[in-house]
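[agent] plan:
  1. take the single chain provided in the ticket
  2. run structure prediction with default settings
  3. attach structure tokens to the ticket
  4. add a short note for the reviewer (M.T.)
[agent] executing step 1
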Amino acid sequence: MSNVKIFADSTSDLPQGWKDTYDIGVIPLYVIIEDQTYRDGLDITSEDVYSRVAASGTLPKTAAPSPADFMAAFTPAVEAGHDIVYISLSSSLSSTYQNALLAAGEYPEGRVKVIDSLTLCGGIALLVMKAVRAARSGLSAGEIADLLEQYRDLAETQFVVDTLDYLYMGGRCSGMQNFIGSLLKIRPLLKMIDGAIVPVNKIRGKKEKAVEQMLQNALSDVDRMDKELLIVAHTLADEDAQFLHNALKEATGADEIAVIHAGCVIGSHCGPQTVGLMYLRKA
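[agent] step 2 finished; step 3 output follows
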């Protein structure tokens, strides 16, 4: 049995079955609504977030775990004899990574390795599963960290939002962009590039067109895909997610295509009916 325990934060949106089967530690970010603070995935659901936004017109705030939160999670594992590899939400999007580094500095050198995923949601989940398999094969924490730094540069994460309202309220697009986008029914196709969210396509018309464009973007890369695991992630967009799952299954022959539900923090910034597609390119 490996002495390395893998940790991620709640923005990885790992299915409960994976967390249980592989003993993955998950450290929640926070969602703040009307001065009340909730732990992502534990104290509040995505549906709660969307209904409160609809009622108030105010976007929730989100906050990173503190160094003390990380230490509370890491210390029992370290005391049990485990080394730790923690895979963080992109440092460009949150102070989660920096706080994890501060916590790691409180342990003997090498006991806690912190990796900046440079991505989010299913992109993190892909790296987590690579780390789990590496740990089970007997690799050390340092070896796993080195491996993940290679894999993160091969991660492809793209997603389509149904409305610009959440991005606008969160300060990620201007009021004029929001007005014009709504008026012309523009659906932005977004991608993680160097740890940041970047628009790569703007599709006018129905959301289905944007989802199809996202699929075609991925399939143009099919020969370079690592087909061990592909991920479709969504926020209350079951039909879009099932469409992508079926299309990817037919076109790629991947070993596994997992459909996961994005949690409260991701949903607070992207809104309901968002759907994403994540995979790794071959090393």
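[agent] step 4 note for reviewer: The two ends are 26 Å apart (CA to CA).
[agent] ticket updated
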